[in-house]
Automatic annotation (TrEMBL):
The gene is Zw. Belongs to the glucose-6-phosphate dehydrogenase family. InterPro entries: G6P_DH, G6P_DH_AS, G6P_DH_NAD-bd, NAD(P)-bd_dom_sf. GO terms for molecular function: glucose-6-phosphate dehydrogenase activity; NADP binding. The keyword Oxidoreductase applies. This is Glucose-6-phosphate 1-dehydrogenase. Its EC number is 1.1.1.49. The keyword Glycoprotein does not apply.
Length: 228
Protein backbone atom coordinates (compact mmCIF):
# COMPACT_ATOMS: atom_id res chain seq x y z
CA UNK A 1 0.00 0.00 0.00
CA UNK A 2 1.35 3.43 -0.92
CA UNK A 3 1.99 6.06 1.72
CA UNK A 4 -0.73 8.28 0.24
CA UNK A 5 -3.24 5.42 0.26
CA UNK A 6 -2.29 4.54 3.83
CA UNK A 7 -2.80 8.13 5.01
CA UNK A 8 -6.14 8.28 3.20
CA UNK A 9 -7.34 5.07 4.85
CA UNK A 10 -6.25 6.29 8.27
CA UNK A 11 -8.05 9.60 7.80
CA UNK A 12 -11.23 7.79 6.80
CA UNK A 13 -11.03 5.47 9.80
CA UNK A 14 -10.47 8.40 12.18
CA UNK A 15 -13.44 10.20 10.65
CA UNK A 16 -15.59 7.09 11.05
CA UNK A 17 -14.50 6.76 14.66
CA UNK A 18 -15.38 10.36 15.43
CA UNK A 19 -18.77 9.98 13.76
CA UNK A 20 -19.51 6.86 15.79
CA UNK A 21 -18.62 8.58 19.06
CA UNK A 22 -20.77 11.58 18.22
CA UNK A 23 -23.67 9.37 17.22
CA UNK A 24 -23.52 7.45 20.48
CA UNK A 25 -23.43 10.57 22.61
CA UNK A 26 -26.27 12.17 20.66
CA UNK A 27 -28.41 9.08 21.20
CA UNK A 28 -27.42 9.03 24.85
CA UNK A 29 -28.43 12.61 25.55
CA UNK A 30 -31.68 12.30 23.64
CA UNK A 31 -32.63 9.16 25.54
CA UNK A 32 -31.80 10.48 29.03
CA UNK A 33 -34.92 10.57 31.14
CA UNK A 34 -35.34 12.24 34.49
CA UNK A 35 -37.53 10.46 37.06
CA UNK A 36 -41.05 11.87 36.77
CA UNK A 37 -40.49 13.33 33.31
CA UNK A 38 -41.30 11.77 29.96
CA UNK A 39 -38.67 13.45 27.79
CA UNK A 40 -35.15 14.71 28.05
CA UNK A 41 -35.28 18.33 29.21
CA UNK A 42 -32.69 20.56 27.62
CA UNK A 43 -33.05 23.00 30.51
CA UNK A 44 -32.08 20.44 33.15
CA UNK A 45 -28.52 21.05 34.42
CA UNK A 46 -26.01 18.27 33.92
CA UNK A 47 -22.54 17.68 35.33
CA UNK A 48 -20.20 15.44 33.33
CA UNK A 49 -17.25 14.23 35.43
CA UNK A 50 -14.16 12.74 33.81
CA UNK A 51 -12.37 10.61 36.40
CA UNK A 52 -8.85 10.24 35.09
CA UNK A 53 -8.87 13.59 33.32
CA UNK A 54 -5.09 13.76 32.97
CA UNK A 55 -4.80 10.56 30.95
CA UNK A 56 -4.55 9.77 27.25
CA UNK A 57 -8.14 8.56 26.93
CA UNK A 58 -9.45 11.82 28.31
CA UNK A 59 -7.33 14.13 26.18
CA UNK A 60 -7.59 12.16 22.94
CA UNK A 61 -11.21 11.03 23.02
CA UNK A 62 -13.42 12.26 25.83
CA UNK A 63 -12.68 15.99 25.88
CA UNK A 64 -12.73 16.26 22.05
CA UNK A 65 -16.08 14.48 21.84
CA UNK A 66 -17.59 16.66 24.55
CA UNK A 67 -16.35 19.74 22.70
CA UNK A 68 -17.88 18.57 19.41
CA UNK A 69 -21.22 18.01 21.12
CA UNK A 70 -21.09 21.39 22.82
CA UNK A 71 -20.09 23.05 19.56
CA UNK A 72 -23.09 21.54 17.78
CA UNK A 73 -25.43 22.40 20.67
CA UNK A 74 -26.18 18.76 21.35
CA UNK A 75 -25.78 19.11 25.10
CA UNK A 76 -27.82 21.45 27.28
CA UNK A 77 -26.25 24.89 27.47
CA UNK A 78 -26.06 24.64 31.26
CA UNK A 79 -23.97 21.48 31.23
CA UNK A 80 -20.69 21.81 33.12
CA UNK A 81 -17.65 19.57 32.96
CA UNK A 82 -15.37 18.46 35.77
CA UNK A 83 -11.99 16.81 35.38
CA UNK A 84 -10.63 14.84 38.32
CA UNK A 85 -7.22 13.20 38.59
CA UNK A 86 -4.17 12.87 40.83
CA UNK A 87 -2.10 15.25 38.72
CA UNK A 88 -1.78 18.82 39.94
CA UNK A 89 -3.27 20.65 36.95
CA UNK A 90 -5.30 23.71 36.10
CA UNK A 91 -8.05 23.86 33.50
CA UNK A 92 -5.65 25.77 31.24
CA UNK A 93 -3.14 22.93 31.51
CA UNK A 94 -5.81 20.34 30.72
CA UNK A 95 -6.80 22.44 27.72
CA UNK A 96 -3.21 22.57 26.51
CA UNK A 97 -2.91 18.78 26.74
CA UNK A 98 -6.08 18.35 24.67
CA UNK A 99 -5.49 21.12 22.13
CA UNK A 100 -4.10 19.08 19.24
CA UNK A 101 -7.04 16.67 19.35
CA UNK A 102 -9.91 19.17 19.49
CA UNK A 103 -10.04 20.00 15.76
CA UNK A 104 -11.30 23.55 16.18
CA UNK A 105 -12.24 25.06 12.83
CA UNK A 106 -12.09 28.65 11.69
CA UNK A 107 -15.02 30.59 13.08
CA UNK A 108 -15.44 28.30 16.09
CA UNK A 109 -12.95 30.04 18.35
CA UNK A 110 -15.50 31.96 20.43
CA UNK A 111 -17.64 28.86 20.96
CA UNK A 112 -14.51 26.91 21.86
CA UNK A 113 -13.57 29.50 24.46
CA UNK A 114 -17.07 29.26 25.93
CA UNK A 115 -16.68 25.48 26.22
CA UNK A 116 -13.60 25.83 28.38
CA UNK A 117 -15.25 28.40 30.64
CA UNK A 118 -17.64 25.58 31.61
CA UNK A 119 -14.77 23.33 32.66
CA UNK A 120 -13.39 22.81 36.15
CA UNK A 121 -10.65 20.62 37.56
CA UNK A 122 -10.17 19.04 40.97
CA UNK A 123 -7.00 17.28 42.07
CA UNK A 124 -7.50 14.23 44.24
CA UNK A 125 -6.57 10.63 44.87
CA UNK A 126 -8.80 7.73 43.93
CA UNK A 127 -8.97 6.08 47.34
CA UNK A 128 -9.42 9.04 49.69
CA UNK A 129 -12.93 9.93 50.75
CA UNK A 130 -11.99 13.49 51.69
CA UNK A 131 -10.92 14.22 48.12
CA UNK A 132 -14.27 13.07 46.76
CA UNK A 133 -16.02 15.18 49.37
CA UNK A 134 -14.06 18.13 47.98
CA UNK A 135 -15.15 17.19 44.44
CA UNK A 136 -18.75 17.12 45.61
CA UNK A 137 -18.37 20.52 47.26
CA UNK A 138 -16.97 22.01 44.06
CA UNK A 139 -19.76 20.52 41.94
CA UNK A 140 -22.35 21.89 44.34
CA UNK A 141 -20.76 25.36 44.26
CA UNK A 142 -21.10 25.76 40.51
CA UNK A 143 -24.13 23.56 39.88
CA UNK A 144 -27.49 22.99 41.49
CA UNK A 145 -28.91 20.23 43.64
CA UNK A 146 -31.16 19.21 40.74
CA UNK A 147 -28.27 18.62 38.36
CA UNK A 148 -27.89 15.14 36.91
CA UNK A 149 -24.38 13.76 37.32
CA UNK A 150 -22.54 11.49 34.91
CA UNK A 151 -19.23 9.94 35.98
CA UNK A 152 -16.96 8.50 33.29
CA UNK A 153 -14.22 6.25 34.66
CA UNK A 154 -11.29 6.85 32.30
CA UNK A 155 -9.20 4.81 34.70
CA UNK A 156 -7.51 1.41 35.03
CA UNK A 157 -9.80 -1.29 36.47
CA UNK A 158 -7.50 -1.59 39.50
CA UNK A 159 -9.03 1.59 40.96
CA UNK A 160 -12.66 1.03 39.95
CA UNK A 161 -13.65 -0.29 43.37
CA UNK A 162 -12.36 2.60 45.53
CA UNK A 163 -13.51 5.18 43.00
CA UNK A 164 -17.05 3.86 42.71
CA UNK A 165 -17.28 3.46 46.49
CA UNK A 166 -16.30 7.09 46.95
CA UNK A 167 -18.69 8.28 44.25
CA UNK A 168 -21.51 6.47 46.04
CA UNK A 169 -20.56 7.82 49.47
CA UNK A 170 -19.82 11.39 48.50
CA UNK A 171 -20.92 12.43 45.02
CA UNK A 172 -24.41 11.18 44.19
CA UNK A 173 -26.72 13.88 42.86
CA UNK A 174 -29.00 15.06 45.67
CA UNK A 175 -31.84 16.08 43.37
CA UNK A 176 -31.28 14.45 39.99
CA UNK A 177 -30.07 11.10 38.72
CA UNK A 178 -26.53 9.73 38.76
CA UNK A 179 -24.89 7.52 36.13
CA UNK A 180 -21.55 5.71 36.30
CA UNK A 181 -19.90 4.71 33.03
CA UNK A 182 -17.20 2.04 32.95
CA UNK A 183 -15.44 0.34 30.09
CA UNK A 184 -15.49 -3.38 29.49
CA UNK A 185 -13.88 -5.80 29.58
CA UNK A 186 -12.85 -4.99 33.12
CA UNK A 187 -10.82 -7.08 35.49
CA UNK A 188 -7.83 -9.19 34.58
CA UNK A 189 -9.84 -12.44 34.44
CA UNK A 190 -13.35 -13.80 34.90
CA UNK A 191 -13.02 -13.96 38.68
CA UNK A 192 -11.92 -10.34 39.07
CA UNK A 193 -14.60 -9.26 36.61
CA UNK A 194 -17.28 -11.07 38.60
CA UNK A 195 -15.95 -9.54 41.81
CA UNK A 196 -16.16 -6.03 40.37
CA UNK A 197 -19.65 -6.68 39.02
CA UNK A 198 -20.77 -7.78 42.47
CA UNK A 199 -19.15 -4.70 43.99
CA UNK A 200 -20.98 -2.38 41.59
CA UNK A 201 -24.28 -4.17 42.16
CA UNK A 202 -23.89 -3.53 45.87
CA UNK A 203 -23.51 0.21 45.28
CA UNK A 204 -25.78 1.16 42.40
CA UNK A 205 -29.05 0.21 40.81
CA UNK A 206 -28.61 -1.55 37.49
CA UNK A 207 -30.00 1.44 35.58
CA UNK A 208 -27.31 3.64 37.14
CA UNK A 209 -24.44 1.58 35.70
CA UNK A 210 -23.40 1.67 32.05
CA UNK A 211 -20.83 -0.75 30.74
CA UNK A 212 -19.43 0.25 27.38
CA UNK A 213 -17.07 -1.36 24.92
CA UNK A 214 -13.62 0.11 24.45
CA UNK A 215 -12.14 -0.82 21.09
CA UNK A 216 -8.39 -0.47 20.77
CA UNK A 217 -7.13 -0.65 17.22
CA UNK A 218 -5.85 1.43 14.34
CA UNK A 219 -9.17 3.25 14.11
CA UNK A 220 -9.22 3.96 17.88
CA UNK A 221 -13.00 3.79 17.74
CA UNK A 222 -14.62 4.11 21.11
CA UNK A 223 -18.14 4.06 22.47
CA UNK A 224 -18.26 6.80 25.07
CA UNK A 225 -21.75 6.63 26.51
CA UNK A 226 -24.88 4.54 26.24
CA UNK A 227 -27.54 5.97 28.53
CA UNK A 228 -30.77 4.19 27.66
Amino acid sequence: MSSRSSHSSLAKSESAGAEEMLSLLRQSLKSCKIPGETNFEASTPHVFVILGASGDLAKKKIYPTLWWLYRDRLVPENTIFFGYARSDLTVDQVRAKCEQYMKVKEGEEERYQQFWTLNYYVKGSYDTRRDFELLNQEMTKVGTEKANRIFYLALPPSVFEPVTSNVKKCCMSPGGWTRVIIEKPFGKDSDSSAKLSAHLAGLFKEEEIYRIDHYLGKEMVQNLMSLR
